[in-house]
């Protein structure tokens, strides 16, 4: 038999299979990817540099949905907020990837380019070099926490005896629709306001 015209596997198919496993299970294994693609485990290693290489492919795929072009907008606070919202949406689509990606250093060139653009935008806005990564990490803390919150059960509090926690029961009953989005915007707004004071200092 001749070789198939379309390869059974390539980096794109490996990435898709890995991300599907992560979305379903929060994890992947190289043998699991091989089974999903119907190939031998050894064949995977012809296309990627082991597990770490696959993690970076997943990172690149998820982060590829982040719109970094908004960082070129003015003023800087609107640009940063737009980037944060896009970042949140990208990871909210794959919340189970967050713990996996947080456990390994960022190496994917395209993802590093996105950070380069964010650093450049903050420096252009006048932030001190020593503060730039602190600002970016603060934004990521809000973004990734909110992305995980979007994947949480609709109610994270199950009151067995409302009489013992009456204030909590009333507060939960008063929660309006869209709580997660409102909480994200509140946290993001608070961050931007603090960043503004940092810039003015």
TrEMBL record:
The keyword Transcription applies. Residues 29-48 bind DNA. It comes from the Bacteria. The keyword Chaperone does not apply. Residues 8-66 form the HTH tetR-type domain. Keywords: DNA-binding, Repressor, Transcription, Transcription regulation. This is TetR/AcrR family transcriptional regulator. It comes from Streptomyces albipurpureus.
């Amino acid at each position: 038999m001749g070789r198939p015209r379309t390869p059974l596997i390539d980096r794109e198919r490996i990435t898709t299979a890995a991300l599907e496993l992560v979305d379903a299970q929060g994890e992947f294994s190289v043998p699991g990817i091989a089974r999903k693609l119907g190939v031998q485990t050894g064949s995977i290693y012809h296309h990627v540099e082991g597990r770490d290489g696959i993690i970076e492919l997943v990172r690149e795929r998820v982060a590829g949905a982040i719109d970094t072009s908004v960082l070129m907008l003015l003023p800087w606070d609107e640009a940063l907020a737009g980037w944060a919202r896009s970042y949140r949406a990208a990871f909210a689509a794959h919340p189970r990837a967050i713990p996996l990606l947080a456990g390994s250093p960022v190496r994917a060139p395209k993802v590093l380019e996105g950070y380069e653009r964010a650093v450049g935008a903050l420096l252009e806005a006048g932030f001190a070099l020593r503060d730039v990564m602190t600002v970016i990490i603060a934004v990521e803390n809000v973004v990734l926490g909110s992305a995980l919150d979007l994947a949480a059960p609709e109610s994270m509090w199950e009151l067995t005896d409302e009489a013992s926690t009456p204030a909590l029961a009333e507060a939960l009953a008063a929660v309006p629709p869209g709580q997660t989005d409102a909480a994200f915007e509140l946290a993001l707004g608070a961050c931007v306001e603090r960043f503004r004071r940092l810039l003015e200092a």
